[in-house]
Amino acid sequence: LALPEGGWPYVPGQAAHLEPTCLTLLALAGDPQHAAACNAALAWVESCAAGDGTYRLARGRREAIWATALVLFTRASLGEPADRLAPLAQALLALRGRTVDETSHDDDVNDIDVSLRGWPWAEDNFSWVEPTSWAILALRRVGQGASPRVAEGQKLLLDRTLGPGGLNYGNRRIFGITLEPIPTPTSLGALALQGSQDERAGRSLDYLERASAQGSDVDHLAWAILALDACRGGGLASLRERLRAAFEARARVPYLRPSSVHAALTCLALATPERNPFRLPEMPPAAPLPEGK
């Protein structure tokens, strides 16, 4: 599925995108037979650099900066030196989700702490679970886990956690309706919170164990395995077999095109625990970076 000009699309027939490219680079890391495709992909990723530390798809919305965290996490996981990654970390620390005026907040609409700042999908937008989780993962990967921005982002994720455990995309309740947890945002949140002793983080992992034991969605299963491996480890053989079967079953459906994201996540999940890039290493924090304005 690699494109001649470098990078990977979501499905064949599309242009390259940063999310499938970053995930595929993580899946193929260290495999010399794929070095040429990976080098071409890294060059394409750099063509998306905006010059201010952020990464933006040239054909997409200029404001969509969420992939900056994926690029930082990927480049750090591939072993790039800290000095080359510092501008990305600085840019990511400077990106902030938009808050809501608490005086006009209506608890009947939603019940979250609207004063907490995480990270948005696009500039000047509200903070959401997945971009916040990716930003925390990337900053912790480069040694900025002690940043107040990371602490606030983790507090946001815990605040968004549903009572029985698990996360939706952004809210717990909307217009009086309690939302349901979803495995993928729950998994990303769990990875961003790994090491937390908060009982809400534990309840989310319990939810992932329950949901994945019955699940058949490739993305959800793969992310759950990666999160459970990083946060709890061991005892995941049956889930890996479930994922393998789900991936093969999807490939047999004639009207479904191959998915770079499905393939990359399946490779990463089946390779655990030997190499799980989302298992954060224990390391002392780096020198503080300026957070911008």
Shape: globular
Mean pLDDT: 92
Number of helices: 11
**What profile does the largest beta sheet have?**
2 strands, antiparallel
The sequence of SSEs as H and E is HHHHHHEEHHHHH
Percent helix:
40-55%
Q: Whole-number radius of gyration?
A: 19 Å
Uncertain segments of ≥5 residues (pLDDT<50)? 283-287
Measured by DSSP, the beta-strand proportion falls in under 5%
Query: Which structural class is indicated by helix and strand composition?
Result: mainly alpha
DSSP E strands, number: 2
- Give the neighbour order of strands across the main sheet: 1-2
Termini distance?
A: 40 Å
Give a description of the structure.
The protein has eleven helices and two strands. The protein has helices at residues 18-28, 35-47, 67-77, 82-94, 129-141, 148-160, 183-192, 199-214, 218-231, 237-251, 260-271; strands at 173-174, 177-178. A two-stranded antiparallel sheet has the order 1-2. Strand 1 and strand 2 (177-178) form a beta hairpin. Helix 8 (199-214) crosses helix 9 (218-231). It is globular. Residues 283-287 have low confidence and may be disordered.
Characteristic key phrases:
mainly alpha, 11 helices, single chain, globular
Q: How are the SSEs placed, and which strands pair?
A:
Elements: H1 18-28, H2 35-47, H3 67-77, H4 82-94, H5 129-141, H6 148-160, E1 173-174, E2 177-178, H7 183-192, H8 199-214, H9 218-231, H10 237-251, H11 260-271
Tell me briefly what this model is.
The protein has helices spanning 18-28, 35-47, 67-77, 82-94, 129-141, 148-160, 183-192, 199-214, 218-231, 237-251, 260-271; strands spanning 173-174, 177-178. With 293 residues, it is mostly helical.
